[in-house]
Specification:
about 400 residues; alpha/beta; Rossmann fold; 5-stranded parallel beta sheet
Length: about 400
């Protein structure tokens, strides 16, 4: 049953709407002004809000704006007896679902309400589906340790902003997952997430990869090519292993961050880009700066927010949760029933020195699934986890 909040300073309108909507089998709460309406919105989960614009102390526009700032995404239908096109446009810009003029037409109000409910349900289903997709694809951050909880809290705080983030941690610890979560929880989530592994691209090609090139810029440039900065326009560019970037590419990236402009290799035209940069490295950049391998000014541009991902050896309590997660994901991928992991197997997994971190753990679980029977035991772990050691 849908839960509706009515915010209006006129008691007669509040009560009339309540009576009508309860007759239509809705659950209805009332608020007589903006502050009490915002309080109810913050404390309860509503499917739709009907909100008057002209109210004392806090009008409907201010309530709508504050709800958005607080991350409340409930569809809001604005109602007013003093409406005009400008007011309606302003309300929609602030995030209102629709605008209805007083005196209210019953049929129009019910149709609008049901359409808003459809949107609310669709948004909820989309969130659930995205979580399932992230879990299936392995994009979800798994773990219950203090270190992981601190990272999740930091992501929730930082993601809505456009602040640049530098993620540090050893290979295989999950730096890319942090970057993807920062993107998925940002206002850029519907725009591209473009990843560049700076260590995997030869130094002579990194500038072309990042900034693109014009036709004829070099021998193999047979046509114009858009670089990763342009491809990520409006979204997020993830520069993985940035500590391995060449000095000349570092200088160009610094300029792009300072001016929000790039130039393709072999071209003079400046191209404006709107990109959020997230970088990651397994190196100690402070040490790299001291040794002259990394620009200090670029480091300060990138490290507005620093997130350190701990190695798996520092969070052994997460190993059973991760093992169960990988068991579920891998068995689903291979179309087989999940196998049981015995208690002594969990203990044996915790005793391993995970130099390859989470990536290594996933490989070990996949190996155990293939080689073991219906139950994975501690002996199985000791036998198969490190076959080369």
């Amino acid at each position: 049953m849908a839960h509706i909040l009515i915010v209006d300073d006129e008691r007669s309108i509040r009560n009339s709407l309540k009576e009508i909507l309860e007759f239509e089998k809705f659950t209805v709460d009332l608020a007589e002004d903006g502050p009490s309406g915002l309080k109810k919105l913050s404390e309860n989960k509503y499917d739709v809000v009907l909100c008057d614009i002209k109210m004392p102390e806090m009008d409907g526009m201010e309530l709508l704006q504050k709800a958005g700032e607080n991350g409340i995404d409930t569809p809001v239908v604005m109602i007013s007896g003093h409406g005009n096109i400008e007011t309606a446009v302003e309300a929609i810009k602030l995030g209102a679902y629709d605008f209805i003029e007083k005196p209210l037409d019953l049929n129009r109000t019910l149709v609008t309400l049901r359409n808003a409910l459809d949107r609310s349900h669709l948004a909820a289903e989309t969130k659930t589906l995205k979580k399932k997709i992230n879990r299936i694809k392995g994009f979800e951050i798994i773990g219950e340790s203090k270190g992981v909880q601190a990272i999740k809290e930091m992501i929730d705080k930082v993601a809505p902003s456009d602040a640049r983030v530098l993620i540090t941690g050893p290979n295989g610890s999950g730096k890319e997952l942090v970057a993807r979560q920062l993107h998925e929880k940002s206002g850029r989530a519907k725009a591209p997430f473009i990843e560049v592994n700076c260590a995997a691209i030869p130094s002579e090609l990194i500038e072309s990869e990042l900034f693109g090139h014009e036709k004829g810029a070099f021998t193999s440039a047979v046509k114009q090519r858009r670089g990763k900065f342009e491809q990520a326009d409006g979204g997020t560019l993830f520069l993985d292993e940035i500590g391995d970037m060449s000095a000349s590419a570092q200088a160009k990236v610094l300029r792009a961050l300072q001016e929000n402009k790039i130039s393709r290799v072999g071209g003079d035209k400046e191209i404006k880009v709107n990109v959020r940069i997230i970088a990651a490295t397994n190196k100690n950049l402070r040490k790299e700066i001291a040794e002259g391998n990394f620009r200090e000014d670029l480091y300060h541009r990138l490290s507005v927010i620093l997130i350190s991902v701990p190695p798996l050896n520092d969070r052994p309590d997460d190993i059973p949760v991760l093992a169960d997660h990988f068991m579920d994901v891998i068995c689903r991928e291979q179309g087989i029933s999940p196998k049981k992991i015995a208690k002594d197997a969990y203990a044996a997994l915790k005793a391993i020195d995970w130099t390859g971190n989470i990536r290594e753990l996933r490989n070990v679980i996949e190996r155990l699934i293939i080689l073991c029977g219906k139950e994975i035991t501690g002996n199985d772990v000791e036998r198969y986890a490190n076959p080369g050691k």
